[in-house]
Amino acid sequence: MAENGKNCDQRRVAMSKDQHNGSLTDPSSVHEKKRRDREERQNIVLWRQPLITLQYFSLETLVVLKEWTSKLWHRQSVVVSFLLLLAALVATYYVEGAHQQYVQRIEKQFLLYAYWIGLGILSSVGLGTGLHTFLLYLGPHIASVTLAAYECNSVNFPEPPYPDQIICPDEEGTEGAISLWSIISKVRIEACMWGIGTAIGELPPYFMARAARLSGAEPDDEEYQEFEEMLEHAEAAQDFASRAKLAVQKLVQKVGFFGILACASIPNPLFDLAGITCGHFLVPFWTFFGATLIGKAIIKMHIQKIFVIVTFSKHIVEQMVTFIGAVPGIGPSLQKPFQEYLEAQRQKLHHRSEAGTPQGENWLSWMFEKLVVAMVCYFVLSIINSMAQNYAKRIQQRLNSEEKTK
């Protein structure tokens, strides 16, 4: 069945590219026109054409707001129901009573879950380019919990202030009481919520490809168009990237649930192709999302957690600092800031940051903060560029349709 669907799709794509108002068009000229349009859009970025990029970004924002307003207007019953539910929640939140203790507990858990799920969505949803929230947020959080667990000989950090700030409990545990499993259990909720967010972020390519297949229309998405072109020229694929994409597509298409699970369980930059493949071949939603959820939120997440925990365990960190100091020439000068940083973290864990080492900011923490700011800024810039390029694509499509009607 999948092969028949593939053949039908290939014929449909070929006919759509060869037929133009009843006349045949050279396929090579069509591909060349698409290539030129794509290159022209890729030049619309802030560092090359700042004024045009900002103008197109503003216009695309207005177009998107108009589209969403229209969709909400046609779903008035859903909007009214949501507003009534929101009003009931607001009243419950602000009205005094015995229920406030439960409201505060639910609020705390909800904000914690929403924070990590949101970071997971930002990591995989795209929006120009994904924000690497594992490297920026979840990974450092797991590393700080690991270092604190070995320093305090306990994971019973008091709340509050944890997770905003980790402080050793008054009654510290015995030496060697910390195990790998205890640290995994401590960060399980944050890691799993982040994994759930990454699974949710993989849904847009699936829904886009599924809607395109059911409607028969060619979607306004370059990744999907590249996917169809890849199916057309599957036999002629020579480069490594094309063969890797075809391997992912064939694995998902032939193996199904377990193929999706395998692709989702390992760090895989080509997983968007798995979502497009599943949507294109009408794989049931719960088959795709269930396998993605298990792979990303359970299997892959535990692999990443164990790697970070082992890397930042006490003896590994001490060996790394010793190794840095053994580097000829620059070793001692590089080792000193690492030792100062670790000592400052130990004092903070014991709530003694006001004594001991000077309060000057360590250059390692300064560099990491600037790295976070730089990556967040780049993420915002990529969204602006992407939306500006989307508006440029709208202009190109309108001009192409006007040429066809002449």
Account of the protein in words:
With 406 residues, the chain is mostly helical. It is built from 17 helices and two strands. A two-stranded antiparallel ribbon has the order 1-2. Strand 1 and strand 2 form a beta hairpin. Helix 5 crosses helix 8. It is globular.
Could you give a short description of this structure?
With 406 residues, the chain is an all-alpha fold.
Q: Keywords, please?
A:
disordered N terminus; mainly alpha; 2 strands; 406 residues; 17 helices; two-stranded antiparallel ribbon; single chain
> What structural category do the secondary elements indicate?
mainly alpha
Poorly predicted regions:
1-24, 353-360
What integer is the average pLDDT?
A: 77
Radius of gyration: 26 Å
The dominant shape is globular
Give, in spatial order, the strands making up the sheet with the most strands. 1-2
Largest sheet: 2 strands, antiparallel
Alpha plus pi helix count:
17
SSE arrangement, N to C:
HEEHHHHHHHHHHHHHHHH
Helix proportion: over 70%
Strand share of the residues?
under 5%
Please give the alpha-carbon distance between the first and last residues.
Answer: 41 Å
Q: What is the β-strand count?
A: 2
Organism: Mus caroli
GO cellular component, one term: nucleolus
Region (Disordered): 1-37
Protein name: Vacuole membrane protein 1
